[in-house]
Amino acid sequence: MTPPQEPQSADEARQAAARFREQYETIRAEVGRMMVGQQAVIEGVLTALLAGGHVLLEGVPGLGKTMLVSSLGKAVDLSFSRIQFTPDLMPADVRGSSVLVDDGKGGHSLQFEEGPIVANLVLADEINRATPKTQSAMLEAMQERQVSVGKRTIRLEEPFCVMATQNPVEQEGTYPLPEAQLDRFLFKLVVGYPAEADYKEILARTTGGQDVELRSVSSAQDILAMRQTARSVPVPEHVQDYAVRLVMGTQPGSAYAPKLVNDSVSLGSSPRGAQALILAGKVKALLAGRFSVAQEDIDAVAKPVLRHRILLNFQAQSDGLSTDAIVDAVLQHNQATVGASA
After folding, report:
1. Do the domain assignments include residue 263?
2. Which residues sit opposite 164 in a β-bridge?
3. Which residues are bridge partners to 111 per DSSP?
4. Which residues contact 37 (CB under 8 A, 6 or more apart)?
5. pLDDT tens by residue, 204-223
6. Which residue range is the domain that position 335 belongs to?
7. 255 within some domain
8. How many domains is the chain built from?
9. 278 or 8: whose pLDDT is higher?
């Protein structure tokens, strides 16, 4: 656990914020040497990492989801592992297991071999292709930052971040993530097709004779220091109230829920949604040069924070309604309420 920090002076806070923005831009630029376009997704991944949360990347194959995470692992000097989720993957393949090891004297002994979940940055590729039993092996690691195997408990070294990918179209042979697991992701980012102008650069980088070699421009200690800087950003009471009303606005029957929510939503966001809005809002405030979180910072992260924490009812799914449309309605309702009371 990080020890409590001494209160910073105004000058120290400004210097810490400047270092935060400089380091952020350095990491983003290095990842951008490999990734073409997708700036919003790159910023979302970095924001989640610096807020201390996990990310679910959703998009059709070939859009660079896996490349983005592996590029981030190279740009930041973190221990990196990749787990390819398949229907035959077992929990022990994720957490680790005891194996027989030759002791060199003709005998054997049991030795525990840590699984790929024991790393700073874990890429869970096509996470919805594993069975619920194996998916559940991720829950303890994502929430408690530890792994329990028999009587052994392994504390995961910080920073720890799971970045998972899934394909929203092909559902054959997949197991949709349960709400309890979705709720453990700080962000759900939707990866779209690249812009027309990006295709030339993509082809130049991937079909030419020169490979892009990324270098480490940051470290685990830098990420932890940036997280501490973000945590120290104050949140005015009215902004905190705004975030709470936004989360409650996704809950049908709430005093802050618009008609569309009451008609279309079965399950709204949990308190984890409010925590995620505040943490991600702090990162956004620093990047915008502000020393406290503003309402616009909460609005900027509302969709990636809330879109996977809303469960639509059958009628809404039949009508093709999206959770993004629900978040838009809640934002408009919340902003109108704030404007009316101002």
Report:
1. yes
2. 56, 124
3. 99
4. 194, 195, 198, 201, 202
5. 877 876 777 889 999 999 99
6. 233-342
7. yes
8. 1
9. 278
Spell out the residues 6+ positions from residue 132 whose beta carbon is closer than 8 angstroms to its own.
175, 178
**Nearest C-alpha neighbor of 302 from the set 47, 32, 21:** 47
Tokens coding 217: 């421009």
For the residues 41-61, what does the mean pLDDT come to?
94
Contact criterion met (CB below 8 Å) for 126 and 83 = no
Average pLDDT over residues 110-131: 90
Q: Is residue 224 one of the residues assigned to a domain?
A: no
- CATH of residue 341's domain is 1.10.8.80
Residue 340's pLDDT band, with cuts at 50, 70 and 90, is low
- Only one residue has tokens 């697991």, namely 181
Asked if the structure places residue 174 within a domain, the reply is: no
Q: Which of 289, 309, 290 is nearest to 239 (CA)?
A: 290
Tell me the C-alpha distance between 86 and 109, whole Å. 30
Q: In what order do the strands lie in the sheet with 161-166?
A: 80-84, 121-125, 161-166, 54-58, 185-190
Q: Which residues contact 322 (CB under 8 A, 6 or more apart)?
A: none
